[in-house]
From TrEMBL:
InterPro entries: Beta-grasp_dom_sf, MOCS2A, Mopterin_synth/thiamin_S_b, ThiS/MoaD-like. It comes from the Bacteria. Pfam families: ThiS (PF02597). This is Molybdopterin synthase sulfur carrier subunit. It comes from Christiangramia sediminicola. The keyword Nucleotide-binding applies. Keywords: Nucleotide-binding. Belongs to the MoaD family.
Length: 78
């Protein structure tokens, strides 16, 4: 399946891009995708990164073809 990946802030800087399309196994989990991208781009502090699936913060969701996954950096309040 193909996933549309978007990177923001310091994550985009580490990746050297703001978006990409990935071809992944139909069985890949959101957590596996995060770990693979973190390792691939050597992203620092992966525990602070949040993921949004189709513009919603999601956990334990089954990904499907065409989903948009946003890698979001830590946010500061104010």
């Amino acid at each position: 399946m193909k996933l549309n990946i978007k990177y923001f802030g310091i994550i985009a800087e580490a990746a050297g891009k703001t978006e990409e399309v990935l071809e992944v196994s139909d069985e890949v989990s959101l957590d596996e995708l995060k770990q693979e991208r973190v390792q691939n781009y050597k992203i620092q502090d992966p525990d602070s990164i949040q993921l949004a699936v189709n513009h919603e913060l999601k956990f334990n969701i089954k990904l499907k073809d065409g989903d948009e996954i946003a890698f979001l950096p830590p946010f500061a309040g104010g």
